[in-house]
Amino acid sequence: MSATVVKGLDENGRRISSMEFETMVQAAAQKNNVLQIEAMGQHNLGIRLQHEDGLSISVSGPTGQRLGCMGMPGTVITCRGAASDDVGYLNIGAEITVLGDATNGVCNAMANGKVYIAGSIGARGLTMTKWNPDFEKPELWVLGSTGDSFAEFNCGGIAVVCGIDAKTPGNVLGYRPCVGMVGGTIYFRGATDDSYARNNARLAAPTDDQWKWLKENIPVYLVKISREELESSLLIRDEWQVLNTISPQERALLFSGPMPMAEFRNKHWNHAFGGGDPLRDLAPGLDRSPIESVPSGDMRRKKPFWANRESAAPCTYYCPVHIPTVDRLRLIREGKINEAYEMLLEFTPLPASVCGAVCPNLCMDNCSRQGVDTPIEVQVLGRAVGTAASPDVAPSIEKKVAIIGGGPAGINAAWQLAHAGIEAHIFEKDTFIGGKLAQVVPWERLSQAIWDQEIKRFLDTPNIHVNLGVELTQEIFNTLKNDFDYVIIAVGTHEPRKIPFPGHETVLPALDFLKKAKSPNPEKVGKEVVIIGAGNVGCDVACEAYRLGAEKVTLVDIQKPLAFGKEKEAAEALGAQFRWPVVTSKVTPDGLVMDNGDVIPAQTVIISIGDVPNLQFLPDSVETLTVGGAAWMKTNEAHLTTDAKVLAIGDVEKPGLATDALGAGKTAAEYIIAQFKDEEWKPFAKEVIPQQALTIAHYTPDNSPDSSQENSADRCLSCASCRDCHLCETICPEGAISRRDLDFSHGNGYKADHGITYEYVSDDNKCIACGFCVDTCPCGIWSMSPF
Amino acid sequence: MVSTRSLSIGPGSLSYTDLPWIIQHREDRCTLCGHCTAVCPKEAIYLAYRRQRMPKLDILSKKRNNEYRTFVGIRQKKNMENSCIGCSMCSMVCPNEAIEPVPNTNENRTLFFNNQKGEPAKRGGRRNEVGPTLLDRIMFNRISMLTDPALDAGRHEFHITTTLGRTLDPEVFLKRTRDGGWIPPTREIFPFVIGSMSFGALSPNMWLGLLQGVAYCNEVLGIPVVMCTGEGGCPPWVLKSPYLKYIILQIASGYFGWDEIIRAIPDMQCDPAAIEIKYGQGAKPGDGGLLMWFKVSQLIARLRGVPEGVDLPSPPVHQTLYSIEESVMKMIQTLSTAFGHKVPIYPKISASTSAKSVLNNLVRNPYAGGLLIDGIDGGTGAAYNVSMDATGHPIASNVRECYLDLVKQGKQNEIPIFAAGGIGKNGNVTQNGLALIMLGASGVHIGKYIMQAAAGCLGNEKNRCNVCNVGICPKGITSQNPKLYRRLDPDQVAERVAHIFMSISTEMKKIMAPLGRSQSLPVGMSDALGIADKDAADRLNIKYVC
To answer: Which one of A280, A315, A332 terminates a domain?
Structure first.
């Protein structure tokens, strides 16, 4: 059957419209599957055409745009000359041959079928193609060259560009082919400008399989375009190159840039600086290599230190003698009762009398246990040591020290010196030692039995020599200075202060009153007693006045009374009244007359506004300081006066507690001992541990703790002194902390400090400096510091 | 019974609900690994032991008593010095998602106590103003679709560089070319410049990481990115490297590191990209630079030629400059001469109502290569809060005004204006940058965005972190302590820089293509801009759209 001819011009030679022409072609295709179209620029030739036996369409004359548009499988279209734009547009299976050139857009969006071009093509060929895996990939064959932007967004199309008689022989694939290409393969032969999209395509030689495919299909193509003579020149494998698609999987593996950063650093960056770190001249040896955010070892910003006993517990710090109550309680916890007693006696010869009785216990005032419940009862602990034996004294070092005054200051100085093997000679004016503790503190507050016991222990101690009834003069003082290595002035204050208001001569000084009151034959007092000066001594006076027959005692002061603590409580319990502000204008037999004329009736008026030292015996080499009209000893931190052989301690420096006097005595003795031993003397210099450093939540409050030593020892928070509880070892998340025994065997490294024979250590290689040890430690031992 | 000691409350006492950031810790998830407390830059958190009283109130029994339970948890400190800054490093290192800081929604009373010891509060970072910026709100809405050639960002080619340096009037250019006269130097650079952050403000790993990324962008990706040194000098090996051409050297009133720069001039393999003369900074105009002593390490001191551990202010005024004419002329001429008139020289000023005067002065100065204006939303390494919060001028209207002034004089193609200050503050870096470009800037400088995007800077506008000034940067970006800055891997910074600029260049095309622009940066193309704010539209002379 011969072909049906469909003509693009009507009988009048006028062009038939594309719309009408398509109807004519459809009608022809119903009848015959061989068509011959004589086109006159009609568009979309071949659209909607399919025939069960296949269709063969030959096109001659000028074709319009989109030849073979939406071509169906089984349709074969051969264009006898050149074709216009978009040949094979959306082709889904037709075979289209153009026996000349084709313009732009060849194979745009083609999904299946083959397009054979016998010449070259224009721009944007093989763009946006598709590949349905149920069908073969679409193919485009070009004998010459392609225009620009070839194979953009190519998805499945296979192109073969042969480079024969190319329109652009210097660049057979045009400018920037393969942009956005995600599938398909471009075979080509001839020169290019190398502008293909590097992120989408990779240039390679054909693989064996690819070459096999080419070898099989080139002859087929040449037959289609009737150029069989080219076969031998096209079948030279070396002349072919392939642009393969970079698969999504391959792309995912690429660094988004084309070169890994490490490679850039090694190959380029380092070379730019002469082959090394660009900071090596400014900071030789600087290591800038990356580290973890939570490192161990040297890259931690801080590290923990086990600062055992480097700070002072509040009890120790606030005690004027710096008695380490924490250590005493630790020894008790460890069952070392005797050592605990002995340690206390190393600090004071009067623990039961002072700690246990007269001291206001600054240790308890500041006790950290108050953060949990109530302070440790130090008085109980002090009294427990009343009967303990004195520690042994050291062998004599053939030195002797004179101590003028046998009050608490002189007593502790003598005690400390005696234990260091130094002869201590006390020269006391009175007939007994103890100073004001013995002379004026009422026996109600300081039991005579305890006092006598402790004084006996003191007097029985070797190296202590007491001379009573010595009235000091400048001559005696100078003799002592010559005969002894050091002289310590501890004469206290025994000159009562007075105010010269009218009638003052009838007023009793408190000091004289109290001394007499404590003597075997005390003086009687009137029924009504007024005491001028409402301090703690005034309270003692009030108590004694009641004991000696007073019925009403009034304490007056020009300011708010300074009395506090046990003394004030005792006076108030007996009924003493406090009045202030009261300014005394005179004292008459009726009583005390105030400046406003009011009279406080009294038969006895006692003045208690303090005492001052009597320093008549001092030579000129020892300077004094005048404060409040009286001369006081001028001393330094070590209680040394301006004379290098003379020290002064106690109230003679400035009025204070008995405990202050004990502390001064100890410090002065330590200074002298250091001089004898030619050692450097160091004052107590520890800082008090801050309350926040302790972790008190580990302790359970106890409403009414029993005050036994053992219970106190358990209740003690052991501030600044490790209680060996292992909590740090337990909480450490890295297992860095361990406890180890200290090694004393070599005798050169450690020295046991108050019997501490262990330490806790943190392994730098494990520790991450989280600070949990610090936050957990009940005693505040661990601290974190930058390093 | 409970504790017999009560807590003392003073005027400055704070509770959790007064702090700007509140640590939420879940004891039921915590494994007590210690990582959070180890990493916290402020030592704000600690392992807390708490005792709880559990009374047994048995009315009929004699067993009435109190029992106590001790429990542990991570708690925050309530003092100013250690108050949480919300950096979230604790959350980042927590293996169990047990801890996080949350912003306090109550009023933050620490604001009333941040002036300890008479010293007003300082911070690093930003202005702390949340919400979309004006730049964020600008839309590009003149779209080329069928009306004129549509462009495809993915497949068309774009020229997206900008010119840094003076472009001569064509007639003058031809005449000078013919007569062999001086043609002012220009550079074709990527319009997003890494703004001036000094070696010192930034850690060595950050600064060199940025430079490595810039070098990569240029040499591997072909994106001509440049960065400005800031005023802290430049390591000598860098000055003598081929990468100097990607560097804008800054000179300012502190003159830090300039001795090393001058010493290196004979050994330079190439010229620097440009010289920036800093007169002002947008974040703290009129207040000068400041490197606090915490950050003046041995290395920084060595490079800057100063003692270690001292505060380094660069005063707001140069000692040798007196009037605007004289300042600009003297500085530009000296520096132009120093590099043989082959390097563009331009000043950087704070955005201000006086910016136009400076610009007009530059127009008349044949050696001036441009003007950089830095707006109030710019960041800084250290400044007084009051300077950062209250002083300055937003960038958009300032740049617009200056550009329109150039247009009036017909000079808009001759002297480029660069803009800085808050570009990319909320992440929209390309949109912000191109909005400014279309308002008239030839390019923009970005600082905070780079720190956030390239190195993971934790700062945000809710005053999160913002401790750059004291050298405790938990990411190692602004610290001079190797224990901190070694947390930052320069390779990773460089890689992020590459990613950022690849992405900005794509986004630029995505903005430019719909506008039908591909062959030149749309500088001043304000017909493409619109904003749903009538006042802003009027002020900027762009379309009001709604």
So the answer is: A280
**Domain check: are A500 and A418 in the same one?**
no
Whether the CB-CB separation of A372 and A701 falls below 8 Å is answered with yes
How many C-beta atoms surround the C-beta of residue B309 within 10 A?
13
pLDDT for the residue B2: 52
Q: Rounded to whole angstroms, what are the CA distances from B181 to A575, B169, B336, B411, B442? A: 112, 14, 16, 20, 26
Report chain B residues whose CB lies below 8 A from the CB of A736: none
Burial profile A707-742: b = 16 or more Cβ within 10 angstroms, e = fewer? eebebbbebbbbbbbbbbeebbbebbbbebbeeeee
Judge if A603 and A622 occupy the same domain.
no
Inter-chain CB proximity A283 and B299 less than 8 Å: yes
Tokens standing for residue A614: 């009597």
* Candidates A265, A272, A776; nearest CB to B47: A776
pLDDT at position A749 is: 42
CB–CB of A35/A28 below 8 Å? yes
Answer yes or no: are the C-beta atoms of A673 and A665 closer than 8 Å: no
A762 pLDDT tier (thresholds 50, 70, 90) = very high
Report the CATH number of the B16-119 domain.
Answer: 3.30.70
Q: Are residues A460 and A520 in the same domain?
A: no
Confidence tier at A349 by pLDDT (50, 70, 90): very high
Q: Which of A126, A766, A775, A787 is the best substitution to test chain B (most B C-beta atoms within 10 A)?
A: A775
Name the domain boundary from A594, A612, A630: A612
Domain count, chain A: 4
Q: Is the pLDDT of residue A545 over 80?
A: yes
* CB-CB neighbors (< 8 A) of B216 in chain A: 257, 259, 261, 264
Read off the pTM.
0.83
Residues of A in contact with B204 (CB under 8 A): 279, 286, 288
Please give the average per-residue pLDDT across B158-181, as a whole number. 95
Sign of the alpha-carbon dihedral angle for B78, B83, B86, B90:
negative
A254 and chain B: CB distance < 8 Å anywhere? no
The answer to whether residues A442 and A554 belong to one domain is: no
Q: What is the pLDDT of residues A141-164, one digit of tens each?
A: 999 999 999 999 999 899 999 999
Q: Distance (Å, rounded) from C-alpha B438 to C-alpha B93?
A: 43
Amino acid A549: pLDDT: 87
**Chosen CATH of B134-317+337-353+364-544 out of 3.30.40.10, 3.40.50.620, 3.20.20.70, 3.90.800.10:** 3.20.20.70
Q: What is the mean pLDDT of residues B473-495?
A: 96
- Mean pLDDT of all residues in chain B? 93
Select from A59, A105, A113, A69 the least CA-distant residue to A89: A69
Burial B433-465 (b: 16+ CB within 10 A, else e): bbbbbbbbbbbbbbbbbbbbbbbbbbbbbebbb
Convert the pLDDT of each residue in B379-424 to its tens digit: 999 999 999 999 999 999 999 999 999 999 999 999 999 999 999 9
In this structure, how many other beta carbons lie within 10 angstroms of the beta carbon of residue A397? Answer: 13
Give the alpha-carbon dihedral of A522, A528, A533, A536, to 10 degrees: 60
pLDDT at B6: 63
ipTM of the complex: 0.90
Which amino acid does the sequence have at B335?
A: L
> Letter for the amino acid at A194?
D
Going from the C-alpha of A101 to that of each of A105, A106, A154, A226, the distances in angstroms are 12, 10, 21, 15
pLDDT tens per residue across span A327-336: 999 999 989 8
Q: Chain A: nearest CA to B239, how far in angstroms?
A: 9
Segments making up each domain of chain B, as ranges: 16-119, 134-317+337-353+364-544
Query: A512: domain range?
Result: 495-612
pLDDT band at B323 (very low <50, low <70, confident <90, very high): confident
Q: Which of A422-426, A542-546, B4-8 has the lowest mean pLDDT?
A: B4-8
